[in-house]
Predict the structure.
Amino acid sequence: MSDFLIIGGGVIGMMTALQLADAGQQVTLVDRGECGKEASWAGGGIVSPLYPWRYDAAISQLSRWSEGVYPSLAFRLLEETGIDPEYRQRGLLYLNVDDADSALCWARQLGKPLERVGADFVRDKEPGVAMAGDSALWMPTLGSVRNPRLAKALKARLTAMPQVTLREQCEVSGFIRKDGQVEGVVSSQGPLIAGRIVVCGGAWTAQLLAQLKVQLPVRPVKGQMIAYQAPKGLVQRVVLKDGRYIIPRADGLLLVGSTLEEAGFDKTTDAAALASLKHSAEAILPALATCPVAHQWAGLRPGSPAGIPFIGALQEWPNVYINAGHYRNGLVLAPASTHLLADQLLGREPLIDPAPYQPTPERLIQV
């Protein structure tokens, strides 16, 4: 029997397993498919909310801590696995921001480096970018990570740890209950028993918890993205305009995203999204009009009220914990949210006040 059973092998689930294994715990991690191949793979990898000043303080607290962890985490994984998550800290240019004054006020309050810059500055940083207006915002400390490689590195590290049992293609279909307690789960690979269970199922979390009569307000929100294969160096840093972004990779791949669609669990791509994303990309970087689109794909974000995740134990099932509902910021918030949950699981002093994230009856759907 494991100390902990984690359901869901995305970045949240894998980072939770890593932190518990680092603390000497026996962990079983299960995923219905392959680890890191759902929302963790499908996102862009920006290590910040897109417009951080527009978010609730609960999200800002997690994101500020997480941003500082990524450089050392990427280095650790590279050293331990030989897989480079490609953490890049080249900053972000915000074009066409209609609430710049609010952004600058937010930055001053938190001590974040954010400044208003002119067209000459933008041309010097990114000569190919088309300006919108005569000013922009510049955040020099923003980083990004190549999320599929981050997931690959996390999986490789967990596979090498003797405290961790990794079970892929293992779908959980129910919970094993006895005397009012949850003892384990029913899975496609047989019953799995553990002292405590952590549900990190992303957009699928609510479906699973419904079997415990828990109504979690987490739903799938579809996001489509495209990638251009462009000449290396066409753009060097993340550029954001009107809610759409371009993210450069070291090999010249440029990611463009993303749509927001209420489409249930549908992950198909379509021509309308392709055209919309191409239009946004070429409005930011006109040279992309001559570059081929190499890929188009879709993922499912775990949408939640105000994007505030649920992190903590269920009151009616105190040995069942949740870490889900990060919406567009799963990768952004993963280091902090998994550390916060590990603090609760291991009885440590919490990283930050856990109260805003608890799955209390007030935050759950009342039926």
